[in-house]
Design brief:
- With 181 residues, the chain is mainly alpha-helical.
- The protein has helices at 2-7, 14-17, 23-28, 45-58, 72-104, 110-118, 122-150, 157-179.
- It has eight helices and no strands.
- Helix 5 packs across helix 7.
């Protein structure tokens, strides 16, 4: 702009440049001074708290999640966190119990646990294996799903929905297969 102004000074007349603020005025903000008259008053703590309570009553309440349609991705995200917590909590709990078992006389060694499990009825064995394998399989398959997303592929809305339902189906099928093994 400077070159053009130097070559053709009439092109940049005072009226053409008047809509642009001078750089010094913009930098110091002397061009656009805003003033707001405000009245203040001294309040004690109780009066201030009462005013705050009245203001909070007039504020709109955010609808939060109630206005959105639930999606499979919400449930799978929450379930992935829950299964991860359950699996890690179960590992730490069993590990700690296994370490202190000799002190309390508990028999948590593999042979005694296998013998106790073998004495159960078949339906109880299958149900226990199914419900124990369910969080393992879901967390594993959903973890693979997230690793695929980390590569940048399968990240469209339809692909995310499809892969979510695929993980749910695969979880139940593999848990059922593991339960009958």
């Amino acid at each position: 702009m400077r070159r053009l102004a130097a070559q053709q000074p009439t092109c940049f007349s005072r009226t053409a440049l008047s809509k642009f603020a001078a750089p010094a005025a913009v930098a110091t903000n002397s061009h656009y001074i805003q003033r707001r008259p405000a009245a203040t008053q001294n309040l004690n703590t109780d009066d201030g708290s009462q005013i705050l309570v009245k203001q909070r009553l007039n504020r709109p309440i955010s609808p939060h999640l109630s206005i959105y349609q639930p999606q499979v991705t919400w449930y799978l995200s929450g379930l992935n966190r829950i299964t991860g917590s359950v699996l890690s909590g179960g590992l730490y709990t069993f590990g700690a119990a296994y370490l202190v078992a000799p002190l309390f006389g508990w028999h948590l060694e593999s042979a005694s646990m296998a013998a106790a499990f073998a004495s159960w009825p078949v339906i109880a064995k299958v149900a226990t294996k199914f419900f124990i394998s369910l969080p393992f399989t879901f967390h594993s398959f959903n973890g693979v799903r997230h690793l695929i997303w980390d590569t940048g592929s399968k990240f469209g809305n339809k692909q995310i929905q499809r892969s979510g339902w695929f993980v749910v189906g695969l979880t139940f099928v593999t848990s059922a297969l593991l339960a009958y093994v």
